[in-house]
Design brief:
The protein is of the alpha+beta class. The chain has one domain: Jelly Rolls. The protein is built from five helices and ten strands. Strand 6 and strand 7 form a beta hairpin. It is globular, with a radius of gyration of 20 Å.
């Protein structure tokens, strides 16, 4: 009994040092759903050669003011290149300029689509200081690792949307190595929400379970 009490006493400090666990009751903000929808439209447009989907993705991205941001990452051991995979043109993008240029190339002489492209280019204003994101590629059976700071007592949201070719899993750890939350279903559409107890650096791990690389978009609020 004494040994058991001693073990509990040793483990208690470790529990105290863990950050806040995932709260499943936290609703995903509408802005996050907009981001996911824009990314899915982009992915669908490239996969199906659909100009209209790219135009709609560009409209949403421009209105929200999404801004590409470089994030330093490291890669844990895995297959260097993975199996054979046909290179996709675009795959996924949230850059309105690129989306509209690609949509125009697919639209041909379709006057309706060309008019919609012109409307987004000239008639849609972008938000100031919009959401930051990064587009990256995780190799087959590999893990991309990011270290990103989040503020105390503020809702933290991490979203990953892949190109659809493999299963991606998302894990969030605090600075002490404690697993805070994860999304490990059988898709490459992942989202995690949590509220840090203190301001600090969190480790974001994106694991590719498939035999080919996966191009994904990562957003953190």
């Amino acid at each position: 009994m004494k040994k058991f009490i001693a073990m509990v006493a040793m483990l208690l400090p470790l529990a105290v040092m863990a950050q806040e666990k995932k709260d499943a009751s936290i609703p995903v903000p509408a802005t996050e759903n907009t981001f996911r929808m824009a990314a899915e439209l982009s992915k669908y447009g490239y996969a199906n050669n659909d100009a209209l989907s790219l135009i709609q993705a560009a409209r949403m991205a421009k209105q929200a003011g999404y801004v590409a941001q470089k994030q330093d990452k490291t890669e844990e051991a895995g297959t260097a290149t993975g199996g054979e995979k046909k290179e996709k043109v675009g795959s996924i993008s949230l850059d309105p300029t690129k989306l509209l240029a690609d949509a125009k190339a697919k639209a041909g002489d379709d006057g309706v689509l060309l008019a919609l492209i012109d409307d987004v280019q000239n008639g849609v204003r972008g938000a100031v200081g919009g959401a930051k994101y990064v587009v990256e590629r995780v190799n087959a059976h590999s893990t991309d690792v990011y270290r990103i700071s989040f503020r105390a007592q503020e809702l933290a949201i991490v979203t990953v949307i892949g190109d659809g070719d493999t299963d991606l899993d998302l894990y969030i750890y605090d600075e002490n190595g404690n697993l805070i939350t994860s999304d490990t279903d059988y898709t490459d559409d992942c989202i995690c929400t949590f509220t840090p107890r203190w301001t600090g650096v969190f480790v974001i791990k994106i694991v590719n379970r498939g035999n080919v690389y996966n191009q994904y978009v990562l957003r953190t609020n």
